[in-house]
């Protein structure tokens, strides 16, 4: 970057003043102009220099007008009238009865513009001169309007058309100021217009040949820095519509935070890499003379904004990365071939060829093997760049020394910027890790020796997600997870309530933002934003479409997606491999995946090994830490010898209560009424649910069994298996005698009846009624408690026991929630 110190002639000796620039967003309408006047009125400095952009949208409108005229599209006339009307109406609003002179001046300007456009329409050929003259008119008008308003308010205020003073040439990096000519003209102009307040048109200038030109889109920032230098200003404030420079583009990262201070270097890196908040050339004149620059919000003038200056802005408490920016519409160019290895000068020739073709290179990366050189250029230059390389290496390509010249379009470069990155290990790892965790492929990497900027090229479609993931990874914003909940019955509803209740606290204390954005039942579907989740039913639509649900949950702009399946549906479980394969994390209390077909289970494990997490703690023992306990044992090298337990809260309750005094069927009726059973109590009594849990535990321990391998003793009499629920409940008493007899036999032997699941070290699995000694650990459970006993090599004589309430929506939902938090922790949330 060139930092030529402007040679400042006479003007530098002028009395100091404060310089400001108001962007288009600060000059959108009459009330904006008044706001600007009010801000200026509060400034302490008696001398004010005010550079302005065009009214918001005017430059775009002028460019479109010129394009339409050249195309012969008569539509320019209507657009011209609208633009004229907007300027006249704003002026009238501002100046009222005193508007006459300004209105006449504007009318004249718009008439000239109409003549120019009509001429363009006749010529039909685009002309750079005309285009540039037209583009800059918005600033000419807005400057005069503001100056007249300030004069109307009683200020001694002059208005400078920068085309009368600022002389520039055009170089590869944009406009180059002729400081000597501009300084002399400014000093001369100022002697003729000595008013303490001065409004200057931004964006516009004149070439040495005397032609009107512009400083490039967003160029008013640069104008402001130039005029601040010419006027010898003591500081420069760029007024916009954000609370300063934010940690990322707020349109892509809504959580972006204002940065209190930046060094010049940091600000330059951010500006070069696409942070639209400052024009990249702006800082050059400021740096050359140590001019402090502030970025502030016109709409919140009490906010301090961002100070940019010479002081190194980093301190130990600050994250190493201050901000992130992204440049879109780029392409990766790759030159590849074994013939390049060890051949000096290849890079020089490649970049020389690009230079000769006027292609600017955004980023360069060469592997140390020298087998390939890769660089990033603007997409619009890609074809020209490719042709230039092919020409330059035509001989090597013919001889096969260079195998290919490739172009991949649709690329964005994301840059992480901060002085604090220098000498800090792990910054790149954190960036790459964050991108990897949300499944974003990095196409090329570059880090400058200054270590102030790490840049990565990614697919354009990943831009927003990559920015957000990196932003969260550097603690600049919370870790955000987009969550969808399928099948909210009792457990799902409890989970939604728990998530809602915990959301603000997780955000505050752990910088974790869990956003429930979709809910689907078989009959209803809601797709929205987290704020609407609590009342999702009010705006749900009919019919579930899990494809649309999935697309909504995996929103492009959110880094992480997670689906919680609270259904008991096999069809939903069948989607897990695809979800996990697409990078969506899955958390579930649904037993169908863990106990379903083994190929599907395997597909789920394989998909989850590739990145997305699959957690299912609540499938066994609800909120009790059963699976994680077993995992910890196995992961630390222990060996499971046997697992036994009572896995059904319903069956636990029935046999804890059953002492022969009340008929078993009466207890089933009572449990049903208390909500301890499934709607159809046979789902509990059949033992299938318990068998499923045993299969899940067995598979966790590496025992590859299926449901069919479990010997299941069903408590549902054969003759009632096909009956309706009502008939079953009604006729269950017919079988009381049989169970009473089993109970009596056990009692006479000093034992108790319990419904037990067992897995032995040979992988034999069974569930059914067992007679246990009266002092057995399973004999003294309370209510619906579950118990699991792991006998392992380490816990051989005295097994490890997990026990506690093992059913109920609240505890099950808490188990699911804990899994969600575990997934979030693996994504980088600080829990
Ligand atoms: P103005 O008209 O005031 O010059 P611009 O539209 O040129 O404003 O640029 C300001 C806009 O740049 C902001 O409104 C914001 O949307 C966008 N922007 C992009 N990156 C950043 C960033 N890092 N900090 C602040 N704003 C940014
Ligand atoms: N009005 C010009 C643009 O829109 C310059 C500026 O606003 O800085 O690019
Ligand atoms: Mg701007």
Structural overview:
The longest helix is centred in the N-terminal third of the chain and has 24 residues. The protein has 4 domains: 143 residues, Acetylglutamate kinase-like (Carbamate kinase, 3-Layer(aba) Sandwich); 149 residues, VC0802-like; 156 residues, NAD(P)-binding Rossmann-like Domain (Rossmann fold, 3-Layer(aba) Sandwich); 182 residues, Dihydrodipicolinate Reductase, domain 2, CATH 3.30.360.10. The N terminus is likely disordered. It has 29 helices and 31 strands. The strands form 5 sheets. It has an 8-stranded mixed β-sheet with strand order 3-6-2-1-9-11-12-10, with helices on both faces. A 7-stranded mixed β-sheet has the order 22-21-20-19-23-24-25, sandwiched between helices. The chain is α/β, with parallel strands linked by helices and 831 residues long. A hairpin with a 5-residue loop joins strand 14 and strand 15. In the N-terminal section; belongs to the aspartokinase family. This is Bifunctional aspartokinase/homoserine dehydrogenase. Its EC number is 2.7.2.4, 1.1.1.3. Its cofactor is a metal cation.
């Amino acid at each position: 970057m060139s930092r030529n110190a402007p040679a400042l002639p006479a003007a530098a000796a002028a009395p100091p003043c404060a310089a400001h620039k108001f962007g288009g967003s600060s000059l959108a309408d009459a009330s904006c102009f008044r706001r600007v006047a009010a801000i200026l009125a509060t400034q302490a400095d008696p001398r004010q220099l005010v550079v302005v952009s065009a009214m918001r949208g005017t430059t775009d409108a002028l460019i479109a007008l010129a394009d339409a005229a050249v195309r012969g599209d008569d539509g320019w006339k209507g657009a011209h009238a609208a633009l004229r009307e907007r300027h006249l109406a704003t002026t009238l609003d501002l100046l009222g009865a005193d508007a006459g002179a300004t209105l006449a001046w504007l009318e004249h300007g718009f008439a000239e513009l109409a003549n120019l456009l009509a001429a363009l329409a006749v010529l039909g050929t685009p002309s750079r001169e005309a285009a540039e003259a037209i583009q800059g008119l918005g600033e000419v008008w807005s400057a005069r309007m503001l100056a007249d308003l300030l004069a109307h308010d009683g200020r001694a205020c002059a208005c400078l058309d920068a085309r009368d003073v600022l002389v520039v040439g055009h170089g590869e990096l944009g406009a180059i100021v002729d400081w000597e000519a501009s300084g002399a003209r400014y000093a001369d102009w100022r002697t003729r217009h000595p008013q303490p307040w001065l409004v200057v048109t931004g964006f516009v200038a004149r070439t040495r040949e005397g032609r009107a030109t512009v400083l490039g889109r967003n160029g008013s920032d640069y104008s402001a820095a130039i005029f601040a230098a010419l006027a010898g200003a003591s500081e420069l404030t760029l007024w916009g519509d954000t609370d300063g420079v934010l940690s990322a583009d707020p349109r892509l990262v809504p959580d972006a935070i204002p940065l209190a201070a930046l060094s010049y270097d940091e600000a330059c890196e951010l500006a070069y890499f696409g942070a639209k908040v400052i024009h990249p050339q702006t800082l050059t004149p400021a740096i050359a003379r140590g001019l402090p620059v502030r970025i502030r919000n016109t709409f919140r003038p009490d906010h301090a904004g961002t100070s940019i200056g010479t002081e190194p802005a980093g301190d130990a408490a600050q994250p190493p990365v201050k901000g992130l920016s992204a440049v879109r519409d780029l392409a990766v160019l790759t030159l590849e071939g074994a013939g390049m290895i060890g051949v000096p000068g290849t890079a020089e020739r490649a970049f020389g060829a690009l230079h000769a073709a006027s292609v600017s290179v955004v980023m360069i990366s060469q592997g140390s093997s020298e087998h390939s050189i890769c660089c990033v250029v603007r997409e619009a230059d890609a074809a020209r760049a490719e042709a230039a390389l092919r020409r330059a290496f035509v001989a090597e390509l013919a001889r096969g020394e260079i195998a290919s010249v490739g172009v991949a379009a649709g690329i964005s470069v994301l840059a992480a910027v901060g002085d604090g990155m220098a000498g800090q290990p792990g910054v790149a790892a954190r960036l790459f890790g964050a991108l990897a965790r949300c499944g974003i492929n990095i196409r090329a990497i570059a880090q400058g020796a200054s270590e102030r900027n790490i840049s990565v090229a990614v697919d354009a479609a990943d831009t927003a997600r990559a920015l957000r993931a990196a932003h969260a990874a550097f603690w600049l914003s919370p870790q955000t997870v987009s969550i969808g909940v399928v099948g909210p019955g009792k457990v799902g509803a409890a989970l939604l309530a728990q998530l809602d209740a915990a959301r603000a606290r997780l955000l505050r204390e752990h910088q974790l933002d869990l956003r429930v954005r979709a809910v689907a039942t078989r009959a209803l579907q809601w797709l929205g934003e987290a704020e609407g989740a609590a009342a999702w039913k009010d705006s749900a639509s009919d019919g579930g479409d899990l494809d649309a649900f999935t697309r909504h949950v995996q929103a492009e702009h959110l880094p992480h997606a997670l689906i919680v399946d609270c259904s008991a549906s096999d069809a939903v479980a069948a989607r897990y491999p695809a979800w996990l394969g697409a990078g969506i994390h899955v958390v579930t209390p649904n037993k169908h995946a863990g106990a379903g077909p083994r190929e599907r289970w395997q597909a789920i494990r394989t998909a989850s090994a590739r990145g997305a997490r699959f957690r299912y703690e609540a499938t066994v023992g609800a909120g009790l830490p059963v699976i994680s306990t077993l995992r910890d044992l196995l992961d630390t090298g222990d060996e499971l010898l046997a697992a036994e337990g009572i896995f059904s809260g319903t069956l636990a309750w029935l046999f804890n209560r059953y002492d022969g005094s009340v008929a078993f069927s009466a207890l089933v009726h009572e449990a049903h009424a208390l909500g301890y059973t499934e709607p159809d109590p046979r789902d509990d009594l059949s033992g299938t649910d318990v068998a499923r849990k045993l299969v899940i535990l067995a598979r966790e321990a590496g025992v590859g069994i299926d449901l069919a391998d479990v010997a299941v003793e069903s408590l549902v009499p054969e003759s009632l298996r096909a009956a309706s629920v009502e008939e079953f409940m009604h006729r269950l008493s017919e079988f009381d005698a049989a169970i009473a007899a089993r109970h009596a036999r056990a009692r006479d032997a000093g034992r108790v009846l319990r419904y037990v699941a067992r897995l032995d070290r040979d992988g034999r699995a069974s569930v059914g009624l067992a007679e246990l000694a009266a002092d057995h650990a399973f004999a003294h459970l309370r209510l619906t408690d579950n118990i699991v006993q792991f006998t392992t090599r380490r816990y051989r004589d005295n097994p490890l026991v997990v026990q506690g309430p093992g059913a109920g929506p609240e505890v099950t939902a808490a188990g699911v929630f804990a899994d969600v938090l575990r997934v979030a922790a693996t994504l980088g949330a600080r829990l």
